[in-house]
Amino acid sequence: MSNAAKQAAETPAEGNPADHAETVHEAAQNGPETGRAGLAAAQAAGGDDARARQDRLAHAVSHDRADQSKAKPPIAEYLRHAQQRSGRGPFELVREYFRLHRGPGRITLPEYIQYGVYDRQRHSPVGQARFITNTLHWPITHACCDMTWQATTEDKWLCSHILARSDIPVPQTLAVIDRSARRYPGTEKIATAAELRAFMTAPGVLPAFGKENRGICSFGAFLVETADNEGLALAGRGRVGYEACIDELVGDTPYLLQRLERNHDFFQRYTDALATVRLCILIADDGVKIPFAVLKLPARGNVADSFWRPGNLACKLDVASGEILTARTKDPLGTTDHDADPVSGAPLVGEHLPIWERVIELARNCAPIFRPVRYQSMDVAITPNGPVLIEINTGGGFDLPQLATGEGFLTDEVRDFFRACGYRRL
């Protein structure tokens, strides 16, 4: 295998690539440094309890990134998996992979396996050619979007301020945790443990959801359930002191604290955490197009709905009706289809999401506010009070819709749109 092919084959398919270059740089800067004091304390204390505490209090973003990436199999295991599932020989699979990798979609070997492209019972040669690698996300996004607008979507505090002046419902911003000199007009800023204690123990604040201000994939997200003068109770993490939260869990990463949104009653049979609908948005000359919609269902006990979290479900939705067409869980080698929730047994496929017309209406009303961002993705929660925009992104990873639907992202509509925006290599 050539060096170039090997590099392409080993490129992971997992995770939304939004802000990839920037967040990789941030991880390089922050990952090894943050939590160093906590590591020293844990080593000094010794024992399993100290190690468990350090794992729990490690820099939240770095910890989640490590969890997301630690289970990537070797290339040979991908091929064995495809052989077992398809009954096809390794040389036949490799030849087919190289044909697709050299084509416009440029899919990597892990993507070829994870998306099930090798399955000829599901995919014709035309269908296979519709799959596209996640590594082309940013080149295509740059061709489609005025990137001077990127901060209006990726800086979550700035985005919330823009949308607060519109008719688009968004979660209430409670505060920002940030130890830098940046100012946040109209928003309480927390920079010290004492300020965090005063904020969290004030009446009416909790529960609150914390997320990295420029984060992706819910890396580092946490839910504050209760608080007292000694510390916080975080869902899935337990008790955390205020000094440890500021110095170790958050570190120098700015965090947005928001009022916790609740699910519509429809979702109670599936999850106890907030579910969202991912909408892929194209702003064409003749209006807003939505080629894909995916329901993201977090497993009970998970703090967020990103598909990399174990047990979470991703479901293909019919854009016209909100009907659930597929329901899938993910593992490092691919996906597994379900007709019902694998834990509760509650039916999924064939169910219709509530107030679907209002979800689509929100998306069509919100997209033109960011019209220079012609390729967008939105995460919309369906709450008892109606749809709420959780966030909007410049671009959006190709992996989630392909994993959830089992279909390639490059429909004729999508391909024509990307070409019209100036990306001619498809």
The strand count comes to: 14
What structural class do helix, strand and pairing data support? alpha+beta
The 3D shape can be described as globular
> Which stretches of 5+ consecutive residues score pLDDT under 50?
1-55
How much of the sequence lies in strands comes to 15-25%
**Fraction of residues in H or I helices:** 25-40%
Describe the main β-sheet briefly: 7 strands, mixed
Question: How are the strands of the biggest sheet laid out side by side?
Answer: 2-1-7-3-4-5-6
Averaged pLDDT, please? 88
Q: Counting H and I runs of at least 4 residues, what is the number of helices?
A: 17
N-C termini distance: 25 Å
Query: What is the alpha-carbon Rg in Å?
Result: 22 Å
How would you describe this structure in keywords?
alpha+beta, 17 helices, 426 residues, disordered N terminus
Topology of this structure?
Elements: H1 3-10, H2 20-30, H3 36-45, H4 47-57, H5 60-69, H6 75-86, H7 90-101, H8 109-114, H9 125-128, H10 137-144, H11 150-154, H12 156-164, E1 173-177, E2 188-190, H13 193-200, E3 208-212, E4 222-227, E5 231-234, E6 238-241, H14 242-250, E7 255-259, E8 276-284, E9 287-297, E10 313-316, E11 328-331, E12 334-337, H15 356-366, E13 375-383, E14 386-394, H16 399-405, H17 412-420
Parallel strand pairs: 1-2
Antiparallel strand pairs: 1-7, 3-4, 3-7, 4-5, 5-6, 8-9, 8-13, 9-10, 11-12, 13-14
Structure description:
By secondary structure, the protein is an alpha+beta fold. Helices cover 35% and strands 19% of the residues. The protein has 17 helices and 14 strands. It has helices at 3-10, 20-30, 36-45, 47-57, 60-69, 75-86, 90-101, 109-114, 125-128, 137-144, 150-154, 156-164, 193-200, 242-250, 356-366, 399-405, 412-420; strands spanning 173-177, 188-190, 208-212, 222-227, 231-234, 238-241, 255-259, 276-284, 287-297, 313-316, 328-331, 334-337, 375-383, 386-394. Strands 2-1-7-3-4-5-6 form a 7-stranded mixed beta sheet, sandwiched between helices. Helix 13 (193-200) packs across helix 14. It is globular.
